[in-house]
């Protein structure tokens, strides 16, 4: 008799748990691909900074390469936001941009700011 009086009481908790799980899955589906693209751009920029001592790698060439990579990844990076400079045996690459993330019930503007510093050999 005691079990009969408790029937159906866990339904609200179950629905709440399913709603939270669905929200987490949808958020992950929208955020994870953008995060991987940003990390891929960072790795590419680090590679360009490491190769800056090669003769054909001028500052303008590095900016063009990073901008083209961002375009191929469909990231909203402007060419004017990329800064490359060299100082006493070090190459610095800085860029920043904002990625809009449309999470359910919320729009978040993720500000990406990268500062890469690599020695020239």
TrEMBL record:
<feature type="transmembrane region" description="Helical">
    <location>
        <begin position="12"/>
        <end position="32"/>
    </location>
</feature>
<keyword id="KW-0812">Transmembrane</keyword>
<protein>
    <recommendedName>
        <fullName>DUF4845 domain-containing protein</fullName>
    </recommendedName>
</protein>
<keyword id="KW-0472">Membrane</keyword>
<keyword id="KW-1133">Transmembrane helix</keyword>
